[in-house]
Amino acid sequence: MFNRITHIILGTILLLLAGCQVIPENERLLPLPMQEPQSNALLIDFTGFLCVNCPTAAAEAQRLQTDYPDNLVVVAMHPADNHFTQTTIAGYDYTCPEANIYYSFFGGTSTTPFPTGVIDMQPGWRSYTEWATAVRASVMQPKGGLLFLQITNVNEAERSFTVSTSAIWENNNVNPLTNETDVEILLWLVADSVQGAQMMPDGSTNLAYTHRHMLRACLTDDPWGMFNGIVTNTTEPCAAGLVHYQVQDTVGGQVLPLAHYSVVGILLDPASKKLIDVQQTKIITKTE
Amino acid sequence: MKAVLHILRTRLHRLCVLIGAMSMTGVGAWAQDTLSVPAAWTVSGAVQHSSLFPTTDVSGDRTAPRASWAPIDHLSNTYADVGVRYEHHGDNPLQFTGFSAATRAELLQWPLLGYDADFRGYGISHLHASADFRWGSVTVGDVYGQFGSGLILRLYEERSLGVDNSLRGGKLELRPYKGVSLEALGGKQRRYWNCYTDHAWGWNYSQDAIMGTDLELEISRWSARMQDAGANLTIGGSFVSKYQAFDTIVTQASDGNYYYYNLPERVGAGDIRASFAMKGWNALIEYAYKANDPIVENAFSYRHGDALLASLSYSKKGFSFIVQAKRSENMSFRSDRKLTGTAGQINHLPAFAYQHTYALPAMDQYATQMDGEWAFQGEICYTWKRRTPMGGKYGTTLRLNGSHVRGLGKRWVDMPDEYYTDVHLELNKRAAKDWYINAMLMYQTYNKAVIEGHGEIIRSGIGVLDVKWATNHNVQMRAELQYLFTPNDAGQWIFALYELSLFKQLMISLSDQYCIGRPDGILTEEHGQHYFSALVTWQKNAHRLSAGYSKTRAGFNCTGGVCRYVPQEEGVVVTYDFTW
Fold first, then answer.
1. What ipTM describes this predicted complex?
2. B544-B550-B553 Cα angle (round to 5)
3. Which of A53, B166, B409, B515 has the most beta carbons within 10 angstroms of its beta carbon?
4. What is the pTM of this model?
5. Which residues pair with B327 in a beta bridge?
6. Chain A residues close to B251, C-beta within 8 Å
7. Percentage of chain A with pLDDT > 90?
8. Beta carbon pairs, A and B, within 8 Å
9. Domain-by-domain residue ranges, chain A?
10. Is there a contact between B241 and A105 if contact means CB atoms under 8 Å apart?
């Protein structure tokens, strides 16, 4: 038979055992060790016109680009399949079909809350409060490869250009007969500094909001890029592919000059879909 | 070829589970009818199945990984519960009084629309065994529970929301003295499934640990004077602690340098409450406090959280009123600091907003803002007796209910922004021998930008008329007419419903919700849209089968202040429920 007093004592001990840790105010932030970035990272920012918190997330992305100017590429995607994007009024439509394809791949639905992001093409939604951690972890990790993009044959009147790609990748997945390995290279057309409408955190609509690095199209027919064999285990880049492209895009009803566009290239391991490298280059490098 | 085989395998598996679940119910029914089950033993169970055969493209809502998509021609949620209970009579040294065990299987491989992406899965989602004694009970397995009003702990299942935040561990309930109740529980919180990884059991749980204790003292049971006066005084206190291993989460401080957060591995929350009831009066006051809990949802803030809730009510035959007030700030308590969405919530903050069941008043339902809010709710209800001038021949009930929610300001008492207001007057009257009328007038303010993350403040006026004709038990008819006016958002709406119930077994229901449009002429996506439904329901004993065709509007499905966004859907709907 249990002693009733023992019950009360046991209960009290149980209460005390459930502890709690209070962090003093001056110990809440601990300094990070200084390190040089070892590779490049890709941040995909899923956003929409109706998303009032998305400007805050975009500002965070811009802040990270300032901190990692040579190592972070940011691409904003407006997928039509989310209720935060507005597609019925032409001036507010920043969607593109390719954004929907990638959005579905990452498991996005019409109810996925925005803003949200994806790091290095790996499924797993990240709130913008996690971007600093994830980007830092990614750029500090060597990835074993480099992608090179070269823009040639630029015709501003026709809005056309040619992209040549080459890559170096240290890996063991080499075909012994051809001494080559397959890679997946995604080439994206991204528009920057586009003035347009956006709902703001205070609920108002800013008609002169500057949209940055918006995905507008894939330069290849296949949104998952092209597969090419490249010679590996060399220190010189191997040519991987060439694309000639004419921009047909209009953004929110506007026809933008080529100076607003850049090409983002993503080098992926086709087996694991892991990002090896990402690069971004403006189509027109001189300022107008 | 591989894709076709996968589709066939998936459908066959789905069919087998459903047949198995229904067979269990058949066995149960047969057992009760045929076997001589000892009187001390009780076997019970339930099957719940909801299907949608969409006739529109729902590809935008696929939640499957890219490699395993299947054609979307059938979405369904299926649950099968089985439980067994043994009652022991007679004396024994341990004072053992009974034993119970229960399990639940879920098939959610292609779930209905609007749930979190990780909601998809299948397997045994719940398993527990419990031994009861005169001095308390011991439970091992998946446990549910609530401390007080749930401000620091509420573990429950709500299928319409996709919520099941049970703990996998154990629970101990003690009643050492009369008027003394002690409860302790602990475990890891369930978080959907992991059947697509290497785990064999089919469920997933967060990698943290949660422990809680609750002590309640019924003071009035120790006082003969209070008992003679019919007074009931109860005080209680509880404490919940969660443990999660350290994470490296980086942030940039105002000096421009990067740091990582010094995150607490153990976060505690406490709650004290007192309730008093006497002669129709009920009063409750409850305060909860949560220590520093930096999580994604509060942008890694180290501020403490707290909630204060007060309630006063009175009821007697023919009259009742209730007034309630609540202030909460930073009280989202999650088992994993990186989680957002429906999963991983340890506590529950009640919504101080009336839960409407009529279609148009329920279109814009309030969801509790976990950042913080001031909320007030009051209701007064009076029934005029029959054979009085106001009561008429059969009596009349009038109910006035109001809810008002505002945001927090800099000072504790500040309430700068209006989030939600609902004032409605409802009349319930039996107009004649066979005629019943329910009428309601409602004013609503809904701050869509705060509650949904986009939009403007919507102010609506709504009228509802609900008439039922029940001449005898075999034939009953009911009709509803509702109208909503607002100058903005989608504008005016009208809703009509007709139900025919025959012989208590068959019911036919037809309804349509139509968007008339905005008075200023601006066209919206919903202008001119019909959201209709035609359903036939058959019910016999413990079986209930419903089938029909419907098109439902995108919106929020809310229960108790927790909401789930459901996208627009159209198609054939089938539901089946069986309880035994």
1. 0.70
2. 120
3. B166
4. 0.78
5. B308, B374
6. 29, 129, 132-133
7. 35
8. 155
9. 41-282
10. no
